[in-house]
């Protein structure tokens, strides 16, 4: 993971089973095998495998330490997260085991709390029917983002020597032997025999170089160590990290190859904005035509739409994986519920059902797409492929959607109607649809138990209050959780308008009846039934899937007080009304939200802000106040006669004689036809990705002779080690989102712009 975090742009690089059980001869029911055509199949029934899910790291490294620091019961944390994964339809789990925490320097396995929690996690996953692929060797130490404390063999052998140093090779072989022969005290199974663990990936992201002979020899030695234990499960090997020696891996005696995908790069330091669907329209594999490649199974051990919280990327990525022939894909990495409020585990990743509800529902939809799209199935190019089968993806609507007779899932409000309402059995989403209108921002799930009887699960409201991909800290929440009474309207077949609601989860004693299809609900689980329906057979302990009807997991409210998140427009057009919108939490129904707008040294107007959706408020500054110059403004929350002013959350309001706080928002107001600045090195440096593409290219910020800040793009001198880039090849990359700049001027005015001016100068 760490080399990828340091990576600049990650390409989708990317592979004949020599030793495997005969078809149908798996050691345990549920085992898989790789056939001669490189297809991973279930031993029982011979059907193709298609599994989709996540990585999740609670037993190890930062997650383990952070859970302890917060005083969280780690077993309870795992149970809650696995429940949420099951709710999201996850059926695949992968983790690169932090060998550095469960081994000594000789490769002997250490029985400790990390290993115990891995065993516990495996047991919990298997209880939910989630299949597992383990990567026993991670190579990482355990520190990121803190200091390393691991003491196993990976703490003394780096990736560059792990496959050539005889001591390192011997330690890894010893460790693999002991790890696969370890007995899980919860499942009572040896790891190598556990039917829930369907395969092994030898090691995580190894780093190799020429010559290729030692690479093949090492891969064979490690695969041989696994098989020498008696394990006959498929053995996978990473081919993505060292493409320069891909032939060495293609020649290795392994059953499958592993890949990753981080299409926008990693660690941008801020939320990436814009349409990235074209980035994931295809998953190219350079050697897909190689016969050695064709005879091996393929899995994506990690993928993510890094630094992107939009709920549209996963379904496209899942479909592209299937077109490329992959049969397993696991996102890296699902955030533990107890840590997701701050997104501290891996800054560039952010996914949790409670804290990123729309993105999480998109994972649910992506899993369905992965299982429904046929291996190798082709699709037209974007945007013609935005609708495929039962799925629809829209960047403009920020919507992923699945619509089948039995299930209707969506990531935001949609006008689509279910294809067969009478056959509907499952609904999941955020926002509103033809069958559910919900006023909150959390995810909800509806599952039909019988005609006229449904289980309703509602997660708390989640409101983003900071950029989750900027620098993070456990002391700084990025998403606020609120438990609110929210309006609900159901229009489900057989339910009627006067349905009843009965609380099922612990502490939920609600008994209510809807009026005209409308009710009010708080976060929790409810039995929803048509009027007169006998529901005595349904209680909190009634079996539901692999769990019980009353099962529920949700974070407590975030005790922060009122919060405001707002970004001023880059510009405003003179003489045009200016609409300003903000996310505001902590405003009750009796409170007032005001916008105080002042033309610099000019007149001031106080305008009421109206709630346009939960936690979203807007007001329009009249055109008379929007004349060339500088408009500055504040937001005031008025509660019980007391004023709180933002930015800053200061007591009082700007008109008070003793309001001495200088914080404010401002927007330049320009006359029609004025140039529109698209990029300014000084102002936009924290919202721009600028990187060198090759090892001999880099970027930095310098001052010009006039004192202005400028972005410098550098190509280093050519040498025997650092070769000149190929003609026409990119040297550096600059990416900036311009959509908000363009939106700050009227469309009619934008149509009049004809020239883009770029100021660049060469320096020696």
UniProtKB/TrEMBL annotation:
Residues 1-22 form the signal peptide. GO terms for biological process: polysaccharide catabolic process. SUPFAM superfamilies: (Trans)glycosidases. This is Glycoside hydrolase family 5 domain-containing protein. One of its GO terms (molecular function) is hydrolase activity, hydrolyzing O-glycosyl compounds. It comes from Hymenobacter coccineus. Keywords: Glycosidase, Hydrolase, Signal. InterPro entries: GH, Glyco_hydro_5. Residues 80-232 form the Glycoside hydrolase family domain.
């Amino acid at each position: 993971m760490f080399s990828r975090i340091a990576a600049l742009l990650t390409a989708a690089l990317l592979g004949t089973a020599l030793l495997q059980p005969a078809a149908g001869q798996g050691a345990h029911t549920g085992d898989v095998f790789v056939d001669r055509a490189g297809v991973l199949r279930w031993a029982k029934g011979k059907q193709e495998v298609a599994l989709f899910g996540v990585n999740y790291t609670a037993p190890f490294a930062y997650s383990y330490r952070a859970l302890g620091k917060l005083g969280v019961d780690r077993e309870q944390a795992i149970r809650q997260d696995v429940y949420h994964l099951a709710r999201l339809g996850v059926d695949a789990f992968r983790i690169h085991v932090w060998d550095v925490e469960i081994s000594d320097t000789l490769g002997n396995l250490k029985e400790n709390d990390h290993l115990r929690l891995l065993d516990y996690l495996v047991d919990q996953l298997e209880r939910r029917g989630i299949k597992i692929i383990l990567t026993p060797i991670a190579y990482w130490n355990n520190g990121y983002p803190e200091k390393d404390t691991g003491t196993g063999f990976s703490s003394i052998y780096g990736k560059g020597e792990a496959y050539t140093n005889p001591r390192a090779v011997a330690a890894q072989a010893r460790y693999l032997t002991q790890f696969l022969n370890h007995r899980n005290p919860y499942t009572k199974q040896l790891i190598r025999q556990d039917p829930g663990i369907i395969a092994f990936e030898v090691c995580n992201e190894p780093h190799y170089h020429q010559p290729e002979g030692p690479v093949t020899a090492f891969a064979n030695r490690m695969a041989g160590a696994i098989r020498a234990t008696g394990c006959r499960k498929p053995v996978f090997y990473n081919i993505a990290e060292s493409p320069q020696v891909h032939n060495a891996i293609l020649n290795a005696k392994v059953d499958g190859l592993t890949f990753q995908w981080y299409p926008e790069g990693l660690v941008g330091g801020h939320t990436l904005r814009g349409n990235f669907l074209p980035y994931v329209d295809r998953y190219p594999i350079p050697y897909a035509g190689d016969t050695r490649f064709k005879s091996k199974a393929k899995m994506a051990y990690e993928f993510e739409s890094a630094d992107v919280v939009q709920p549209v990327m996963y379904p496209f990525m899942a479909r592209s994986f299937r077109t490329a022939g992959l049969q397993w894909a696991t996102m890296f990495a699902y955030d533990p519920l107890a840590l997701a409020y701050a997104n501290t585990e891996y800054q560039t990743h952010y996914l949790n059902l409670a804290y990123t509800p729309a993105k999480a529902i998109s994972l649910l939809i992506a899993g369905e797409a992965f299982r429904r799209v046929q291996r190798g199935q082709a699709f037209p190019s974007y945007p013609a492929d935005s609708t495929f089968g039962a799925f629809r993806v829209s960047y403009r609507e920020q919507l992923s959607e699945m619509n089948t007779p039995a299930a209707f899932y969506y990531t935001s409000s949609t006008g689509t109607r279910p294809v067969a309402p009478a056959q509907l059995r499952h609904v999941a989403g955020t926002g509103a649809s033809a069958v559910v209108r919900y006023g909150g921002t959390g995810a909800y799930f509806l599952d039909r138990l019988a005609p006229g009887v449904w289980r309703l699960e509602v997660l708390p409201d989640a409101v983003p209050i900071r950029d989750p991909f900027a620098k993070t800290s456990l002391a700084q929440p990025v998403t606020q959780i609120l438990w609110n009474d929210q309006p609900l309207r159901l229009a489900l077949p057989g339910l009627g308008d006067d349905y009843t609601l009965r609380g099922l989860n612990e502490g939920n004693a609600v008994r209510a009846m809807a009026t005209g299809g409308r009710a009010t609900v708080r976060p929790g689980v409810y039995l929803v039934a048509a009027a007169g329906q006998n529901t005595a057979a349904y209680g909190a302990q009634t079996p539901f899937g692999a769990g019980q009807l009353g099962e529920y997991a949700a974070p407590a409210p975030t005790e922060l007080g009122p919060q405001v998140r707002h970004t001023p427009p880059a510009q405003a057009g003179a003489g045009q009304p200016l609409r300003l919108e903000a996310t505001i939490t902590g405003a009750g129904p009796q409170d007032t939200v005001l916008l105080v707008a002042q033309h610099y040294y000019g007149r001031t107007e106080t305008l009421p802000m109206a709630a346009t959706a939960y936690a979203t408020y807007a007001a329009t500054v009249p055109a008379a106040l929007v004349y060339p110059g500088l408009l500055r403004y504040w937001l005031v929350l008025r509660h019980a006669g007391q004023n709180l002013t933002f930015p800053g959350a200061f007591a009082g309001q700007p008109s008070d004689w003793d309001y001495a706080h200088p914080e404010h928002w401002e927007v330049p107001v320009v006359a029609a036809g004025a140039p529109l600045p698209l990029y300014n090195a000084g102002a936009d440096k924290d919202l721009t990705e600028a990187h060198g593409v090759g090892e001999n290219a880099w970027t930095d910020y310098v001052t010009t002779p006039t004192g202005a800040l400028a972005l410098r793009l550098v190509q280093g001198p050519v040498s025997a080690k650092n070769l000149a880039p190929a003609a026409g090849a990119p040297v550096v990359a600059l990416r900036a989102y311009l959509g908000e700049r363009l939106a700050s001027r009227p469309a009619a005015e934008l149509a009049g712009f004809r020239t883009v001016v770029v100021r660049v100068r060469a320096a020696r």
